[in-house]
Amino acid sequence: MGVILPSINTSPRRIVFLVIAIVVGVHYLLTVVFKDYGPAIAVPSLTQLGGQLGFSQFLENNTTSDTPDLSPGSVSPLLSSMNRNTSDTHDYQRANATFVLLCRNTDLAGVVTSIQQMEDRFNRKHRYPWVLLNEEPFTQEFKDRVRVLTDAPIEFGLIPPEHWFQPEWIDEEKATKGRSNMMAQGIIYAGSVPYRNMCRFNSGFFFKHELLQPYRYYWRVEPEVKFFCDINDDPFKFMQENNKTYGFTISLVEWEATIPSLWSTVKEFIVEYPEYITPGNSMDFLSDNSGDTYNLCHYWSNFEIADMDFWRGEAYQKFFDFLESKGGFYYERWGDAPVHSIAVSLFASRDQVHFFSDIGYRHDSFQHCPSGEEWVKGRCACDPHESFDYVFNSCLPKYDALYW
Ligand SMILES: *[C@@H]1O[C@H](CO)[C@@H](O)[C@H](O)[C@H]1NC(C)=O
Ligand SMILES: *[C@@H]1O[C@H](CO)[C@@H](O)[C@H](O)[C@H]1NC(C)=O
Ligand SMILES: *[C@@H]1O[C@H](CO)[C@@H](O)[C@H](O)[C@H]1NC(C)=O
Ligand SMILES: *[C@@H]1O[C@H](CO)[C@@H](O)[C@H](O)[C@H]1NC(C)=O
Ligand SMILES: *[C@@H]1O[C@H](CO)[C@@H](O)[C@H](O)[C@H]1NC(C)=O
Questions:
Q1: Cβ-count burial of 97 within 10 angstroms (0-12 exposed, 13-18 middle, 19+ buried)?
Q2: Which residue did the predictor score with more confidence, 40 or 18?
Q3: FRET partner for 148 with CA separation of 20 to 30 A, picked from 54, 266, 307, 346?
Q4: Residues 68 and 174 in one domain
Q5: What share of the chain is helix, strand, coil (3-state, %, to 5)?
Q6: pTM
Q7: Residues 354 and 308 grouped into a single domain
Q8: How far apart are CA 282 and CA 79, in angstroms?
Q9: Total domains, the chain
Q10: Active-site annotation holder among 119, 135, 304, 332
Q11: Can 224 be counted among the known catalytic residues?
Q12: Does 178 fall in a domain?
């Protein structure tokens, strides 16, 4: 036996594959070897050949990857996909709004997944800016890893120490006692001062940061949250066009031991400043007896789409100063969620609070998953049966009842 020739089996299938192999080889030769002569040689694409030969069903569905345009002057598919076409967003009239994300350098992995999802599900189309805030300077690595995720403007801000740390006038002995008392009750973050700094910052200071001054509406995003659905309508524009103050996706009851004296403080405030209580408010969301006791309902503030001018306004400023003067952010563990929720429920009208039922969202073990048409339209990656909306400890029924 001399030279081994490939045995030519003449079944139609073999022939088809042989033709494909020859076409691929010729295609490769023409495009690679003669690429300098690009315009002079019309190289039929595999798809066209396949179509002509009647075996297009064997080919991948029309993707452009098998027909790289190698003619001189054209950019490679890779480069052109990097050269993102943003002209569709150029003319988009954005609302006066930004994302805000409070985090630390150590949160990098969770920040990346949160921003990636927001970009994929919503912001790629709109390019709303991002403002990231940290009590320490962001590292170069952090900034590089986050910047690559979006074309939208991103700013990295440092929180002024006076907006973050426990004020001098807080009685540290009393604060320490408060913390150990709470630890004895097994309450989450009971012993943490940084957690309290964060709650106080989110209650009274974030909207004062210089990087947020140019904006009115914000969407608060946290590290390691999930956005399950395409967000087809622009929630910022919805807020602006409908004069909304506060938007939420999850509401629930607070752990009472973290806020033992909050409601009595609120009641004091109401007596002292009755002029700030808005007609048509949602006291009934907070209290089942017209304000005598707090039912612990609040909007879960790790997700918020809201109006910073409301926090900057007179009513909320007076309210925050009043709470701050009691020291409850440190002597107890007042959270920004009940603080924001109480303020919105009392100083805004119920028509200005909005449930974003179409936004699928998860933080820790709680999630809101849309259902029905919203679930379909949003291509939601969550089980519509797993939603916190109407389970025990959800306050959504109380919210619904406001509008009956
Ligand atoms: C190919 O593309 C057509 C048109 O977009 C689509 O209807 C079809 O389902 C695709 N087929 C496959 C196998 O992806
Ligand atoms: C596939 O591409 C061919 C040639 O570009 C085109 O004529 C045909 O309509 C395309 N088919 C689909 C399903 O997109
Ligand atoms: C960018 O997209 C717009 C609309 O989507 C289109 O009209 C325009 O031709 C595109 N520009 C480039 C350079 O691809
Ligand atoms: C956006 O809102 C902020 C806060 O209300 C305001 O200072 C700023 O002028 C607004 N910007 C525009 C372009 O309207
Ligand atoms: C928007 O809400 C404010 C109260 O926050 C109210 O004073 C104002 O009249 C409202 N504007 C419109 C256009 O409804």
A1: buried
A2: 18
A3: 307
A4: no
A5: 50, 10, 40
A6: 0.74
A7: yes
A8: 53
A9: 2
A10: 304
A11: no
A12: yes
